[in-house]
Amino acid sequence: MKLSARNMLQGTVSDVRKDGVAAQVQIDIGGGNVITSTITADSANRLGLENGKAVTVVVKASDVILAVDD
Amino acid sequence: MKLSARNMLQGTVSDVRKDGVAAQVQIDIGGGNVITSTITADSANRLGLENGKAVTVVVKASDVILAVDD
Amino acid sequence: MKLSARNMLQGTVSDVRKDGVAAQVQIDIGGGNVITSTITADSANRLGLENGKAVTVVVKASDVILAVDD
Amino acid sequence: MKLSARNMLQGTVSDVRKDGVAAQVQIDIGGGNVITSTITADSANRLGLENGKAVTVVVKASDVILAVDD
Amino acid sequence: MKLSARNMLQGTVSDVRKDGVAAQVQIDIGGGNVITSTITADSANRLGLENGKAVTVVVKASDVILAVDD
Amino acid sequence: MKLSARNMLQGTVSDVRKDGVAAQVQIDIGGGNVITSTITADSANRLGLENGKAVTVVVKASDVILAVDD
Questions:
Q1: Helices (H), strands (E): how many in chain E?
Q2: Which residue ranges form the domains of chain E, and what is each CATH number?
Q3: DSSP three-state, residue E2
Q4: pLDDT tens, residue by residue, A24-53
Q5: pLDDT 10s digits, C15-68
Q6: Contact between E53 and F68 (Cβ < 8 Å)
Q7: With an 8 Å Cβ cutoff, are B46 and F1 in contact?
């Protein structure tokens, strides 16, 4: 499957926390960077997310904000 | 300024393309990864985005989708 | 590849329009419903989107707004 | 009221689950397709969402990702 | 129609700019604040957006980022 | 820090509610308008959000939907 979403980064799950509806997942993408994703707890279960699992971080280009120093 | 957005990656602008309303900006974040952002052309001008400029990529956790291999 | 995004609908491309940065793609998902997606023109080219091509519409649950009649 | 959001699908609520902040709502849009939406629990209450209620699914075109088979 | 989206601000269109796919619309919401929205040019036409027209700005709570001074 | 996000409104936190993963924050922006933001509970803690704290509401232009009366 190919996605229109432009941004895909390889990483490894380093933390999963769930409550009734939501899950917060942390993904180590290397270089000292950790990405945080909030998805549904159902999706975290369906994808079998747990520490050490390889995942791809996907972000649509229109959801990327840029910042520069003043 | 501190942001609630969880994900911030340092990079360098490697390409800017603009049309009447939109701009597509590519940011080299190292490790062979390039992030693409679509913002308004006005914002690209206001931030002075051009090749080589240091920028921070900002993504809200709720905009991060995860994918796993089957 | 399995995605955390909850919503996936099968359809067929019925229109593609591009300008310098953006593309607007219409997808017939049957039952008289047409979905409109805006992606980058680059992605439309990379995915080979053209009339008649089978595509999957993907939407993250947090991007779905609900409306009810008053 | 007319919305700039391009995508509107008619459906019926088939499940509502709430925790302290969030609600996960499932909407049967026919043709064997179920849409999942995450909104605030407050909004689920304010709209009176419960099984069997008619709702409209609203998605902005810029939040629609497309996928094609390899 | 009632929307699950939590944020609705009344305003007046103060500028509309369109290209092939996208439109950038500015909305004066009073108090010296102007909101910028990017929608499709088709939607801008369908809603009859032009200077002076009354509009409601709608934003889903999950799309609101917060910032605080250091 | 300057952001590509076009919309920034000054306000004051008027309510914070948290559960395991998510936080719902209400911000009084004056003129009788209250903005609701859902962010992670971690971010609400990291930013020290509590009633009376000054915050800036940030919204990317592509996340702004417009509505007009019929």
A1: 1, 6
A2: 7-59 (2.40.50.100)
A3: strand
A4: 999 999 999 999 999 999 999 999 999 999
A5: 999 999 999 999 999 999 999 999 999 999 999 999 999 999 999 999 999 999
A6: yes
A7: no
**Band of the pLDDT at E44, cuts 50, 70, 90?**
very high
- Please, how many CA atoms are within 13 Å of residue B42, restricted to the half-sphere of its CB? 14
State how far residue A15 is from chain C, nearest Cα, in angstroms: 16
* Global pTM value: 0.98
Specify whether the CB–CB gap between C29 and C11 falls below 8 A: yes
CA dihedral of E27, C59, A55, A38, whole degrees rounded to 10: 60
- Work out whether the CA dihedral A34, A40, A41, A44 comes out positive or negative: negative
Interface probe with A: pick from F4, F21, F37, F59, most Cβ of A within 10 Å: F21
Nearest residue to A4 (alpha-carbon basis) of E19, C37, C69: C37
Model pLDDT, residue B1? 93
Q: For the segment B30-57, what is each residue's pLDDT rounded down to a tens digit?
A: 999 999 999 999 999 999 999 999 999 9
Closest CA to A44 of A60, A20, A8: A20
Q: What is the pLDDT of residue D70?
A: 87
Q: Which helix (H) or strand (E) holds B44?
A: helix B41-46
- Give, as one character, the DSSP assignment of residue E52: T
Q: In chain A, what residues touch D68 (CB-CB under 8 Å)? A: 1-2
**Residue labelled with tokens 């709570």:** E61
DSSP character for B35? E
Q: Which residue reads 């989107």 in tokens? A: C49
CA separation for the pair A15, A13 (Å, rounded): 6
Distance CA D10, CA C63 (A): 16
Instruction: Quick: pLDDT tens for D37-56.
Output: 999 999 999 999 999 999 99
The yes-or-no verdict on residue F24 having pLDDT over 90 is yes
Residues of F in contact with A17 (CB under 8 A): 20-21
Closest chain C residue by Cα to residue D6? C36
Task: Tokens 């080589």: give the residue.
Answer: B52
Place of tokens 């919401």: E29
> Which residues is D18 bridged to in the sheet?
D23
